[in-house]
Amino acid sequence: MRVSLEWLGEYVNPGMEAADLGEKLTRSGIAVENILRRDARLDQVVVGHIDVIEKHPEADRLWVCSVNTGDRQYTVVTGAQNVRQGHKVPVALPGAKLPKGVEIGEAAFRGIKSSGMLCSAEELALEEKTISPEDREGILILDKDAQVGQPIAQALGLDVPILELELTPNRADCLAVINVAREVSAITGQPLQLPDVKVVEKGEGRTEEQVKVTIEDSDLCGRYAARLFTNLRPGPSPLWMQRRLQAAGMRPINNIVDITNYVMLEMNHPLHAFDYHTVKDGHIVVRRARTGEKLVTLDGQERELNSENLVIADPEKAIALAGVMGGLETEITEKTTTILLEAAHFYPASVRRTARQVGLRSEASQRFEKGVNINTVKLAMDRAAELVAQLGVADVVPGYVDNYLRPTEPVKVPFRASRINALLGTTIKPEQMEDIFQRLQFPVQWEAATEGEQRDAGIVVAPTYRPDIQGEHDLAEEVARLYGYDRIPTTLPQGKTTVGQRTWPQTVREKIIDALVGSGFREVVTFSFINPRHLDRLAIPAEDHLRQVIPVQNPLSEEQGILRPTIIPGLLELAARNASRRIPDLAIFELGGTFLPKALPLKELPDEAWKVSALVMGAAPVHWSGKPQPYDFYFLKGIVEKLLSALKIKGVTWSRETELSYLHPGRAARLQITQDGMVFDLGYMGEVHPDVREAYDLAARPVVMELDLSALTLLARAKGDYRPLHRFPSTDRDMAMVLPVAVPAGQVEAVIAEVGGNLLERWRLFDVYQGNQISAGFRSLAYTLRYQAPDRTLTDEEVNHAHESIKTALMERLGAQFR
Amino acid sequence: MREQLERIRLQAANELQGVEGTEALQDWRVRYLGKKGELTQILRGMGAVPAEERPAMGALVNEVRAAIEFMLEEKSRQLKEKEKQARLASEAIDITLPGQVALVGSKHPLTLVIDEIKQIFLGMGYEIAEGPEVETDYYNFEALNLPQDHPARDMQDSFYITPDILLRTHTSPVQIRAMERIRPQLPVKVICPGRVFRRDDDATHSPMFHQVEGLVVDKNITFGDLRGTLLTFARQMFGPEREIRLRPSFFPFTEPSAEVDISCGCGGSGCRVCKGTGWLEILGSGMVHPNVLKYGGYNPSEVTGFAFGMGVERIAMLKYGIDDMRLLYENDMRFLSQF
Ligand SMILES: [Zn+2]
């Protein structure tokens, strides 16, 4: 919303500079985003009169003008073809520096010295949307009454500051200049002078006899009023009106259109003018469109309508889309002699739906969507009639039609000053509140106070142009903003002391992040939605449950097509992006939600399973003294083990994972825990399948993991089991065995643990060897075992016995050979 | 014999001068103190000394022996010290070569900012509440005083899953969920960090971003309490010299409502960050609308509350001086490694 101070000044004198007024408005709730000035760098441009214009003797397309600027005569050469003798035009004097940076001097054009320049609209930086197409071409030809020598900014009304308001949805009332004036009056205390509307009617007959209005769907249209104007005398509107429209960012068209626009801006009431003779029987019917009904709108487009749309119709057909756009057939043309002016109130929801559906958001529809004041419909219509008569645009036929089916009463808002103070934390006196309400022109009635007490309870009647005032809390805001938010005291909640602490799941998350960051991983954040094509890249089979994804209905692009069922594709995409930027070594993780529907299409909210997912690729940074530590399966497995240990989770079994399409079937593991007879799935890790690697264009071999946060949270423990330290010495014994490669180390260790029993304190694998001296298909595993008892020093015999038992068991059960 | 002893003492001292290294010292020791050493030879010759001279001569022999032993000890100490110095010198390394490469990880800057915000409010006795990213229309709009066709729904263009289920457009639905969980207990003191989604994608908007919402509901909560809480937060987050400024604004779920500006680090002189105004817009806030309290299960005539919300990306950008929001989602390692 743009309001020029010149227009505002008709209703209230703010008594301060634009910048100060802007600041004051902003601090009291009407945000002034900018103070627009259109006269920058125009101080050296004045109105000039073309005394003489002649063809340049040496050049076909050039003209030589003798220009009078009041006190001086200039010779100006121009290449524009639209200048004639007697025209008044903008002349940039020598030395001028125009808005777009052009500097004007003196120059010779084929032997003729030219001083200054005639200007086009563009050179003056006039807003294109506010000027007619013909004014955009060539030199700007000024009004014949323009005053020679006058600075151009004055002549074109560009010297008034314009407030650009950023209105919040609750203050749509300030789409009316008069309501901005009310606001200015309230915050400055300056008197308000609103238009006193008096319609001068003329001629025979009465509107009521020639116009009939039937509102069929009063749930969508609460009020419809109309007037007739005859003997239309089309022409331009007066300059002062054109200037105000232009300051507001609109283009003057002609007198009748300008008047409707002027009233729309002044009072926030969109009006519409029909050619009366094209409306059959002068009968306006306001009704829902019939399904399939067609209407050609002003822009020449044929629109197919349905029963959601409200139309203005005559007895035969729709003639306008109510509140959105008029119809082509009933448009005002040069032949129009009589106008039917519509002033109405349409309910926002219906206008919004229709405007959306037909893809038209006109100035009128946006205002109806935000809500106009139903009680000033007739006032706005009369204001237009007053201007029509005053400016001699047409004769106003006596009388009017006004169907007001759903009268809206102003809301009475009871309040207590004490409660407003309690909400704000202030001690504002009832008289101060009364003063604020009066400045806002909110009538207030107080209940009589009891003897010796202050007044407290009262009722404010909220004007219907302020529908946002519904309850006491709304009055509290009015009081606070006019009292000044700056004067609200600074306190802290009193009440009961509370202890802020993290929940267990939140604590577990922090532990996980700390463990990963401490292991050299960088946290990343990727979007919760992904491109559905990731599922193909991950080679997920058509019938797989991971294909049961939740689609987003209205994504901006495919990139937000589905909610992610796993974080892995996001990490792979990042790996590819970094690799393409020559960052081949990565250790990254993300903690976040994944989304799995209970059923599709979604009937209820999906499961949001939080995962901790990680990806490693390449190798750890290499030190000059050593070999690179590859970021491979065993590296990431070590990290997973560290994570589990940080969470004090024990007893995880690792089994081969072959189901997931995006993992290497020979290099993937699933993690599970069996506890109290229940199996908990912790997630999986593994090397990315070569096909998937290729789909992501990755040369290296990434390894990924995805663990389930809720399972980790459930199994994690705040503290481990403490066991007293052993006081008696321990004995270490090594064993090296040869086994078929197919026997996993996990099985070997299971036997060691079982047979070793209580005497075995711990064991550690220290060598895995395959190659020379070992037959093909076999490998050697070497362990150190530590024996220890809590209550005594073990004898050699005891240790030997235990060690041999383990060996025997390994030989018998797994076919291990010892040398 | 006496001269002989004196000669040995002098000779030992002289020879010792030239001794370098422990081996040579060993030879020297054997030569003078060993079983076949010169001093031993002399003792063997004691038999030839007249009996009355023997005690004096014995004392002299012991004196000379003690002197030679002292020399030996002294020399040995010197030699060890010298050898140690030589060893240390030979062990010197190039201390300018790079150190062992430690694996350095990092939290995402958005997590760092959220952590910091959490820490401040945990310290003020708030708990951390969470809610789903996929929400119902009821929690995202209706219970927040945004009924169907409310014009303010236009402020937030949403990603829909079904007509009734959408990606939450703000963390405010967690306010309702928190009240439902805690009622009828008092006070409610929560902050709700999380991801939110809006249909915007340009240089200053991302279709997904982060918010932290705060909510306090109790008896006698005032607008002044909101102001004090936000001032405390602003000073802990940005520095003790900061001030805040409240401007009237509009949110459907609060009334009165306020935009909150924090004074810029430039101290009001105006800079590029604050676009010369001296103030930075960082928060939206207000007193919880009575309808929202009702939806949360509290009686608005008995309790009041305040709520506030902030964009984490904006704060991260201000705090770290990041000028392009998209960097936060590109996850370039060269970017992430700076946090
Ligand atoms: Zn600044």
Description:
The complex is a heterodimer of chains A (819) and B (339). Helix content of chain A is 26%, strand content 26%. Chain A is of the alpha+beta class and 819 residues long. Chain A is elongated, with a radius of gyration of 42 Å. The mean pLDDT of chain A is 94. Chain B folds into two domains: 2-90; 109-336, BirA Bifunctional Protein, domain 2, CATH 3.30.930. Chain B is of the alpha+beta class. In chain B, a hairpin with a 2-residue loop joins strand 3 and strand 4. Chain B starts with a helix and ends with a helix. The complex binds zinc ion (ZN). Zinc ion (ZN) binds at residues 264, 266, 270-271, 273-274, 278 of chain B. Zinc ion binds at residues 264, 266, 270-271, 273-274, 278 of chain B. Chain A: Keywords: Aminoacyl-tRNA synthetase, ATP-binding, Cytoplasm, Ligase, Magnesium, Metal-binding, Nucleotide-binding, Protein biosynthesis, RNA-binding, tRNA-binding. Chain A: Residues 39-153 form the TRNA-binding domain. Chain A: This is Phenylalanine--tRNA ligase beta subunit.
Task: Describe the SSE topology.
The complex is a heterodimer of chains A (819) and B (339).
Chain A: E1 2-4, H1 5-8, H2 18-27, E2 31-36, E3 45-55, E4 63-68, E5 73-78, E6 88-92, E7 106-109, E8 112-115, E9 117-118, H3 152-155, E10 162-166, H4 177-188, H5 207-210, E11 212-215, E12 221-230, H6 239-247, H7 255-267, E13 271-275, E14 283-288, E15 294-296, E16 302-304, E17 310-313, E18 318-321, E19 325-326, E20 339-346, H8 348-358, H9 363-370, H10 377-390, E21 395-396, E22 401-404, E23 411-416, H11 417-424, H12 430-439, E24 444-446, E25 457-462, H13 472-483, H14 504-518, E26 522-523, E27 529-530, H15 533-537, E28 562-563, H16 568-580, E29 586-596, E30 607-617, H17 633-646, E31 653-656, E32 663-675, E33 678-688, H18 690-695, E34 703-708, H19 709-715, E35 731-740, H20 745-756, E36 760-769, E37 778-787, H21 796-814, E38 817-818
Parallel strand pairs in A: 11-14, 26-29
Antiparallel strand pairs in A: 1-10, 2-10, 3-4, 3-6, 4-5, 6-9, 7-8, 12-20, 12-21, 12-22, 13-20, 14-17, 15-16, 17-18, 18-19, 23-25, 24-25, 27-28, 29-30, 30-34, 31-32, 32-33, 33-34, 35-37, 35-38, 36-37
Helix pairs in contact in A: 6-7, 7-10, 8-9, 11-13, 12-13, 14-17, 14-19, 20-21
Chain B: H1 2-18, H2 22-33, H3 38-44, H4 54-90, H5 109-123, E1 127-128, E2 134-136, H6 137-140, E3 160-162, E4 165-167, H7 173-182, E5 188-197, E6 208-218, H8 223-238, E7 244-251, E8 254-263, E9 279-288, H9 290-296, E10 304-311, H10 312-320, H11 327-330, H12 333-336
Parallel strand pairs in B: 1-5
Antiparallel strand pairs in B: 2-4, 3-4, 5-6, 6-10, 7-8, 8-9, 9-10
Helix pairs in contact in B: 1-4, 2-4, 5-10, 7-9
The complex binds zinc ion (ZN).
Zinc ion binds next to loops of chain B.
